[in-house]
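Worked problem 6 (solution included).
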Amino acid sequence: MGTYDNRRRIGAANKALNSRLLSAKGGSALFAACGFVAEPAQGEPESYVNQLGTPFVRVALVALGKATAVWDALAASRGSAVDVSDGPRGGPRGPKLTASEQNTPVEEIVLKALPVRSALLMTRASADMQPALCKSDDGRQVLLHTWQEASHSWTCQGSMEIPSTEFVWTTPRTLLVLVDLGDAHGSGQPVELRAALNADGTDLENDYVTARDFIEGHIADSYTKCQEPVLNANYLEEISRKLRAAAGPVMATVANLKKAMEAQN
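Solution. The predicted structure is:
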């Protein structure tokens, strides 16, 4: 076996193995196809051992060396390029917190011109977490909705009585974001990211803590269900950055609504 002898065994706690391969959709299947099996076979693995003979290891190495070209050829045959800009090549794209466009705040608010809730719910937005204002069915409140790209629907984040300048969040001091984790998570349904707001509800309390808790919560959930974890600490900075970028226009809309209400009063 020569130099291959030193590479037959990989510790199950290996960070590179878990963050780059086993966390990716199909990563476990690829790992097994290359001849690695868990030891012990039952329970929590302590290591992975390659049981292929030398000739088969050489074949696997050659095949892996051509994996990128094969992947690109498959994408081209389907008329699209493989997009790995949001994650490591061959790894998960990570949570979808933004659509094709960045959300923007609602400005120059004219209260009398706001649509009713039923009219807003019949529309769509092109940016994830795009804020929009409407009136409640009884006309007594202004409602703040955000477009959730993961569910293709509007979510009511809070309201303000007419007349008033106090904005009340639907869930106290919480901004709700629905996240698309992709097929690797296994549920096929959007999952909730609840971002805590500061005491006066005007900004995120700590986007890094929110991102960390979200990642840790869904890694544990994936392991419990014997699914491949689709999140890891490598996405902390990305989730935090996207969350803050998405929250900014929502908070600005709340501030603009207060100004509009004060001007009317």
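Discussion: The first strand starts at residue 9 and ends at 11.
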